[in-house]
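For the sake of transparency, this paper describes our internal protein records without simplification. The record that follows is passed on verbatim for readers who wish to inspect the format:
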Amino acid sequence: MTDSAPQSLPARLRSLTPRDFEVASRAAIAVAVPLFLLLALDRLDLAAYASFGAMTALYGRSEPYRVRLRSAGIAAIGLVLSVALGTILAASGAANILVAAALVVVIVGGIVVAAVYGLFPPTPLFFVFGLLVCAALPTPPEQVPLRIGLAAASAAFALAITMSGWLLRRAGRERDDGWFQQLTRSPRVRWAAVREAALWVAVAQNVFGALLAGAVATAIGIGHPYWAVVSVVAVIPPPHARHSISRSVHRIVGTAVGVLVTGALLFPEPPPFAIVIGVVIAQFGAEILVGRHYGAALVFVTPLALGVAHLASPLPVGTLLIDRLLETALGAAIGLLLVLAARWLTARKSQP
């Protein structure tokens, strides 16, 4: 992850380019259009499905368009499959053991696919999030096709938005300034990644941590146990990234500050229109920062996630925020312990 660079956050913000604003604008449009359509149709109960499909626009940044089509297309398929799996589990009233099994499949698949195809973000966070939120939403069986179809349509729209700059860049291909800076990120397909020990260490960390966090949160009886699972996945670094305590703390602090921002957004009990505006702004801010400082990005990711959850299934705001804080602390603590364990094992291996 790029948040391991020694630069301070202000320095990283000063280095923002027009391309960063282009990418963030695409991501904001990708989520704004489906949410405002649902608002007009008075169906914001379906906001989660549209939002997870729209997260396709978070992938493929700074990549040439042929590579971007591959990256964002793979992300779209992963997001829709995760939503579909969660929706089917919810409609069938699946037991927790089946949800846990699906979680393991999504974690392993997400990490392996991200490593092989060089996806950024390189973690299974959004796939896990889509699975667990959709698995937790009450779903009548007859609504399954609609909800999965909505996620697929939103993903297709986000993919089109992601590719929309192709004609503009073709027109400005002779330039290398401003909005037409070169697209320099071009990840290769690396099937050899599946043989790397670091990948399977990350898989083991995520699977063990996610299952432990979910089990503890469920046993304690805190609402929304999936927040603890998502927090674990947010804290654990991707394969080959340095297991830095400071990075883990940044992620934890970013999430906690994000909860406070969400409280400022939701406590006045604004109308749904205002919450949708807040979600769109949060999507923009998260995409601006995710490549610069992941901890700061979580200040926006958290109100984005909680805002969507509140639109889909309104709860008392205090309960929502307390659950999020408690489960973030639980998941982050487990994730941090796993980071420390990985550092300890690495240090032992390096000793003569």
User: Anything to note?
Assistant: The first helix runs from residue 9 to 14. The chain has one domain: 15-350. Residues 1-6, 174-179 have pLDDT under 50 and may be disordered. Residues 30 and 158 are 5 Å apart (CA to CA).
